[in-house]
Amino acid sequence: KSTLYVVATPIGNINDISLRALDILAKVDVVAAEHPQVSRHLLTTHSISTKLISLHQHNETIVANKVLALLDSGKNVALVTDAGTPGISDPGAILVQRVRAQGYAINPIPGANAAICALSASGIINPHFLFYGFLPTKTGLRKRALIELKPQLCTLIFYEAPHRILESIADMVEVFGPQRELTIARELTKLFETIHAGTLEEVFSWLQADTHQQKGEFVLLLSGAETMDKYVISEQAKHTLKCLLIELP
Ligand code: SAM
């Protein structure tokens, strides 16, 4: 049965790709890639010469027909994006829907994702998070989106572009107040990887003071509306629990 493989690729370090992903990329008949030249570099590095076609945000619907025709003729296709997991703030969902509707198999090949990578190294104890992706680019819409998110108890995860990083954090300070905790994860798995945490106002000043830190790719992790105290048992609560346990039969 013809299959569409949804293959995660590295978010920086070119070796962050699974053995299974490499095997699939070498075996399929065609790789549909967001930017074929970006993916060609990855494939060549790993000595893979599979044919690439372009599938991006603006041609996904049309290219989906092409992919369906390939699957109809018994070929297997892999979908990749420039970096990370397809369909996560990236194209892929329309193709997957169309392929599923035609009854073909869809196999995800898991791997890197910037949000999860950042969260895993953040030390944030809250087990709940909301992945928002990119905020609106216009400040009015961005502030409105942030105001809607303000009551959320879970960690809020955003992607942000370097030319908007300062203005987005400034909007966060305005909407959430200066004291919420922000973790900034920049250039993950790359040479200038930086993970920095502090209150919103601290992180804003830190970033403003160093233009080098304003370059590259960013994940922002903003703490939820409540403090994390509820996930850490206080000494007093431990004492109360101990007293209550003694009373139990
Ligand atoms: N599909 C990708 C994923 O699974 O993470 C996300 C693609 S989205 C178009 C690109 C955004 O992801 C960047 O603007 C940045 O916010 C984030 N990102 C990607 N790679 C990153 C990295 N190495 N370090 C920090 N953020 C990264």
Automatic annotation (TrEMBL):
<keyword id="KW-0949">S-adenosyl-L-methionine</keyword>
<dbReference type="GO" id="GO:0005737">
    <property type="term" value="C:cytoplasm"/>
</dbReference>
<dbReference type="InterPro" id="IPR000878">
    <property type="entry name" value="4pyrrol_Mease"/>
</dbReference>
<dbReference type="InterPro" id="IPR035996">
    <property type="entry name" value="4pyrrol_Methylase_sf"/>
</dbReference>
<dbReference type="InterPro" id="IPR008189">
    <property type="entry name" value="rRNA_ssu_MeTfrase_I"/>
</dbReference>
<keyword id="KW-0698">rRNA processing</keyword>
<dbReference type="InterPro" id="IPR014776">
    <property type="entry name" value="4pyrrole_Mease_sub2"/>
</dbReference>
<comment type="function">
    <text>Catalyzes the 2'-O-methylation of the ribose of cytidine 1402 (C1402) in 16S rRNA.</text>
</comment>
<dbReference type="Pfam" id="PF00590">
    <property type="entry name" value="TP_methylase"/>
</dbReference>
<protein>
    <recommendedName>
        <fullName>Ribosomal RNA small subunit methyltransferase I</fullName>
        <ecNumber>2.1.1.198</ecNumber>
    </recommendedName>
</protein>
<comment type="similarity">
    <text>Belongs to the methyltransferase superfamily. RsmI family.</text>
</comment>
<keyword id="KW-0963">Cytoplasm</keyword>
<dbReference type="InterPro" id="IPR053910">
    <property type="entry name" value="RsmI_HTH"/>
</dbReference>
<feature type="domain" description="Tetrapyrrole methylase">
    <location>
        <begin position="3"/>
        <end position="203"/>
    </location>
</feature>
<dbReference type="Pfam" id="PF23016">
    <property type="entry name" value="RsmI_C"/>
</dbReference>
<keyword id="KW-0489">Methyltransferase</keyword>
<keyword id="KW-0808">Transferase</keyword>
<dbReference type="GO" id="GO:0070677">
    <property type="term" value="F:rRNA (cytosine-2'-O-)-methyltransferase activity"/>
</dbReference>
<dbReference type="InterPro" id="IPR014777">
    <property type="entry name" value="4pyrrole_Mease_sub1"/>
</dbReference>
